[in-house]
From TrEMBL, chain A:
Protein name, per record: Dihydrolipoamide acetyltransferase component of pyruvate dehydrogenase complex
SUPFAM superfamilies linked: CoA-dependent acyltransferases, Peripheral subunit-binding domain of 2-oxo acid dehydrogenase complex, Single hybrid motif
One GO CC annotation: cytoplasm
Taxonomy of the source species: Bacteria, Bacillati, Actinomycetota, Actinomycetes, Micrococcales
Segments for region (Disordered): 73-174
UniProtKB/TrEMBL annotation, chain B:
The keyword Mitochondrion is assigned to this record: no
Organism, scientific name: Cellulomonas uda
Single GO term (MF): oxidoreductase activity, acting on the aldehyde or oxo group of donors, disulfide as acceptor
UniProt cross-references to CDD domains, sorted A to Z: TPP_E1_PDC_ADC_BCADC
Residue ranges with Basic and acidic residues bias: 329-348
Gene from which the chain derives: pdhA
UniProt-annotated stretches for the region Disordered: 1-53, 328-348
Protein name as it appears in the record: Pyruvate dehydrogenase E1 component subunit alpha
Biased segments, Low complexity type: 1-51
InterPro entries: Alpha-ketoacid_DH_E1_comp (IPR050771), DH_E1 (IPR001017), PdhA/BkdA (IPR017596), THDP-binding (IPR029061)
């Protein structure tokens, strides 16, 4: 008969405690070989491929993409004997879920934890809280989504009985990595010291075999409805009150069907939908029950971008100054360099000149190339310029930087910028490429935008927005001429950069762009 | 990182004439401590041939000029005036046996890495890419020789008959290594970088004092090998070992696998000249060998071991190779080295090289290849099963190997510990956690 094995998230480094599920490379129903790569995870150290420990058929993915889970959390269930007959009892009573829910139920599991914990206080967890008796580890059956929840509860509970529980013969270690079913005790030894005989020092002699694991007796209609987390989530989404339902599941639990049946009766017709509106807009998304929204987990680059932007926007007081400038001479220089044999192997763009102009400005005003160290209450002035370039990539916004850009000649700078952007576009920007930037340029001009108020890359004091270059009427030598004009914006961190400094830096950048020969004077 | 591009790729041209000077023959009888050796190696553009002096190499520590090579990367056998003699007796069967060793070592690597990713091992260090250096040198050993490995010498362990699951007991964290170092002539793995170069040198000095050197009896004369990496040469211990080995003429081969990476630190950040160029400064002759060439690794080690057993003193071997994998399973090399560099070395895979050679000779029949594949698969399965079934050793085993002979203090500790253990209620069930 089918044998379900659950693979707990391993520690892929040394002493890591958690990892994010980045990509599942297998789906429910897939046949996997031993050591076939099944999932890509991201630890604090690196991206790691995990190989399957078993051959078999994937029956469930227990953790959703984009979720960060603790080491030891089961992440996938594999039937290692798929040719067997139907499961006798279903692992953990979850077999009814498996057929209809597949991974949908699991995707919800993590989101559901918080609410499940709130809805579901005493009755079922009571039995779990007998920790640390003389229990041997009884073959713990996999129970899927419930089990993750149970393990967390158990872990939380494990520290409590140490104070008052019957088996408190010593301080209980609160770490309990094993997964347990609701209603079953933890394995012996995971939470408490070994019991000593009379040779032991003092403490109350407790019976080695404590009646800790009395399984939950057939529930006698509890005050709150019993339901699995995915079902709870479904009920919440559909606005169904679980307590008002008559449970039909084994042991008096509310099943998915109970919820759906109730919802079908109660629900008014949903708003008019267009054909196909109930399909997810993105492959990684799920559609809300009314078919009118796609929800996509926030992960990887998006997640980091969000964190960085929130950190920056709400710690560094931003000020932005603007400048409109005639860059006709810069355009002529770009034109000329493009025809120059020496520059034949690199891309010459107005951005290159802007980058050089910013480097020259930094050289004249090194105080701009700094960061605020909140912990030590110090301003850190950098002796080097790692010039960041905000790049739109298929994976999202990344800001790799050109290391020691202040040392580079124009040709080297062009080559470095070219390599940086091509690496970013190919999605191969490494974490090292993105760390330790000191100042950044965002080239909003490529989108045809005049300018904006950029948010600082965290840890930097200034960011330059380079706008679109347009031909415009412009007063040139006392006459109205058609000239190439652009707008520059510089946001800076007002904690360490005052308006004067920020304005001077921007004026210098503009000055070089207006007349690149100025670079000779300052270079 | 750009400096670690591929400077060695272009330095191939005038290699041939310099190779005979790799080990100065004249130094064999009485190595001359050359005080000017290092300066000469660094500055003289001429192909130096003074005793104990390595030819100057323009390309710095990564130059592949002057490497002893018997098989080219395309598997072509090239002749070498000095080292041909050391491989002349090898038959196709011998070559196939080397091939098998390398394939099984790599399978071990792959399987152990997967086991770590499955949570069965705490850590693992791959030998990936270094199989030729290890199997070639390991096969040159005699049963009485003694090896002091670091923690990456799985290929040598395999050749020395160590059951490789024992190695995994260490990486699973249940034991320090379960094999008998004396029975296999293979010491326990040393995790401290470079310290075992001193242990090996000391052991070799013991061999010397036991009169097991220079007797002319092939069964008796003994050599010692210390395996360490390029990173270890930055440790003082290795330099100390070189001093002691040289002044005592210890029968030790200092075998440095230069895999070009000390975790994330490239060789270029640790040496300005080839690492082997240091040894002549200590008075130890040195040779640089293509570490991805199993035949050359065998020949060069065999010659060095012979010198040691004859009583002619230590030799420093730099096997120039490449760590194709990560430093350990906790490391992510994509953070510090380019995929171009990795690809360059993937095309120089040591196993491919021997396979191409055997195929060209028509010496690799399909039956052998299939049989080896099946053997490797069974080996993989064996490793998985064995690792998952590994229990914990009894706590009392910690007293077993403290001293070679009975010791009253240890016995007292053991007695106390056993009493203490038996005071636990669950001890009656005979279980140790």
């Amino acid at each position: 008969m089918p044998t379900y094995q659950q693979f707990p998230l391993p520690d892929a480094g040394e002493g890591l405690t958690e990892a994010e599920i980045v990509t599942w490379l297998v789906a429910v129903g897939d046949t996997v070989e031993v050591n076939q790569t099944i999932v890509e995870i991201e630890t604090a150290k690196s991206l790691v491929d995990l190989p399957s420990p078993w051959a078999g058929v994937v029956t469930r993915l227990l953790v959703e993409t984009g979720t960060t889970v603790d080491v030891g959390t089961p992440i996938i269930e594999i039937d290692t004997d798929p040719d067997g007959t139907a499961p006798a009892d279903g692992p953990g009573g979850a077999s009814d879920e498996r057929a209809s829910d597949e991974h949908a139920s699991d995707e919800r599991a993590s989101d559901e934890r918080a609410s499940a914990r709130a809805d579901e206080p005493a009755p079922t967890t009571g039995a779990v809280r007998h920790v640390g008796g003389g229990l041997r580890r009884s073959g713990v059956e996999p129970g899927g989504a419930d089990e993750i929840e149970a393990a967390r509860e158990a872990r939380a509970a494990a520290s409590e009985p140490a104070a008052s529980g019957p088996a408190a013969s010593g301080p209980a270690a609160p770490e309990a990595r094993e997964s347990v079913l609701v209603g079953y005790g933890l394995a012996e030894g995971t939470g408490a010291r070994r019991a000593r005989g009379d040779a032991g020092a003092a403490s109350a002699v407790t019976p080695a075999v404590a009646p800790a694991a009395t399984p939950v007796a057939a529930p006698s209609r509890p005050t709150h409805a019993l339901a699995k987390p995915p079902v709870r989530k479904l009920a919440r989404e559909l606005g169904v009150d679980l307590d008002s339902l008559t449970p039909t599941g084994p042991g008096g639990i509310v099943t998915r069907e109970d919820v759906l049946a109730h919802a079908a009766q109660a629900e008014a017709r949903t708003l008019a939908t267009y054909p196909g509106d109930d399909q997810p807009w993105l492959a990684s998304g799920t559609v809300s029950s009314d078919g009118r929204q796609t929800r996509v987990p926030v992960k990887s680059v998006r997640k980091r971008t969000a964190e960085a932007m929130v950190t920056s926007a709400f710690t560094a007081p931003h000020v932005t100054v603007f400048h409109t400038v005639d860059v006709t001479r810069t355009m002529k220089l770009v034109e000329k360099l493009r025809g120059d044999k020496e520059f034949a192997d690199v891309r010459v763009t107005p951005l290159l000149i802007a980058a050089k102009a910013l480097l020259l400005a930094v050289r004249r005003h090194p105080e701009i190339n700094a960061s605020w160290d909140e912990d030590s209450r110090e301003i850190v002035y950098k002796h080097y310029v790692n010039l960041g370039i905000a790049a739109a990539t298929p994976r999202g916004l990344v800001v790799p930087n050109v290391k020691d850009a202040h040392r580079l000649g124009l040709h080297e700078l062009a080559a470095a910028l070219g390599e940086l952007t091509s690496t970013a576009r190919a999605g191969r920007t490494s974490p090292a490429d993105m760390t330790d930037g000191t100042i950044t340029i965002t080239n909003v001009g490529v989108f045809g935008i005049d300018t904006g108020t950029p948010i600082l890359n965290p840890g930097e004091a200034a960011i330059l927005a380079f706008g679109a270059i347009r031909e415009q009427p412009w007063v040139h030598k006392g006459k109205i001429k058609v000239r190439s004009v652009t707008q520059l914006a510089l946001s800076f961190d007002h904690r360490l950069v005052d308006g004067e400094l920020g304005s001077r830096v921007l004026a210098d950048v503009a000055s070089v762009l207006a007349d690149p020969a100025q670079g000779l004077v300052w270079g | 990182m750009s400096s670690s591009g591929l400077p060695y790729a272009s330095a191939a041209a005038p290699a041939a004439p310099s190779s005979p000077a790799a080990i100065p023959g004249g130094s064999a009888a009485a190595p001359v401590p050359t005080t000017d050796g290092r300066a000469a190696a660094l500055s003289s553009p001429a192909r130096a041939s003074a005793p104990g002096v390595l030819p100057a190499v323009e390309g710095g520590p990564l130059a592949d000029e002057g490497l002893v090579q018997l098989l080219t990367p395309s598997g072509e056998r090239v002749s070498h005036p000095e080292y041909d003699a050391y491989v002349a007796h090898l038959t196709d069967d011998d070559l196939r046996a080397m091939y098998r060793d390398m394939v099984l070592t790599r399978r071990f690597d792959t399987e152990a890495t997967a086991l770590q990713r499955q949570g069965e091992l705490a850590l693992f260090a791959q030998a990936l890419g270094q199989e030729a250096a290890q199997v070639g040198s390991g096969r040159a050993l005699k049963p009485q020789d003694h090896v002091f490995p670091s923690y990456r010498e799985h290929g040598v362990a395999h050749v020395r008959g160590v059951e490789l699951t024992q190695v995994l007991r260490l990486f699973r964290g249940v034991d320090h290594g379960g094999w008998d170092p004396v029975a296999h002539g293979f010491h326990l793995y040393t995790l401290v970088i470079g310290s075992h170069a001193l242990h090996a040198t000391g052991y070799a000095m013991g061999v010397q004092r036991d009169g097991l050197v220079g007797t002319g009896d092939d069964e008796r004369d003994t050599a010692v090998v210390a395996y360490f990496g390029d990173g270890a040469t930055s440790q003082g211990d290795v330099s100390e070992a070189l001093v002691f080995a040289a002044v005592n003429q210890a029968p030790v081969v200092l075998f440095c696998q230069n895999n070009q990476w000390a975790i994330s630190e490239p060789t270029t950040r640790q040496a300005a000249a080839p690492i082997a160029a240091r040894a002549p400064g200590f008075g130890i002759p040195a040779v640089r060998v293509d570490g991805n060439d199993v035949l050359a690794s065998y020949a060069v080690t065999a010659a060095a071991l012979e010198r040691a057993r004859r009583g002619d003193g230590p030799t420093f071997v730099e096997a120039f190779t490449y760590r194709m994998g990560a430093h350990t399973t906790s490391d992510d090399p994509s953070r510090y080295r380019s995929s171009e560099q990795e690809e360059h070395w993937r095309r120089r895979d040591p196993i491919d090289r021997l396979r191409t050679h055997l195929e060209a000779r028509g010496a690799l029949p399909a039956t052998f290849v299939d049989g080896l594949q099946a053997e490797a698969d069974a080996f993989g399965e064996h490793l998985r099963t064995a690792v998952r079934a590994m229990g914990h050793p009894s706590a009392a085993s910690m007293f077993e190997h403290v001293y070679a002979t009975p010791h009253a203090g240890v016995e007292a500790d053991r007695t106390w510990f056993e009493t203490y253990e038996s005071s636990f209620l669950d001890a009656r069930e005979g279980s140790h956690r």
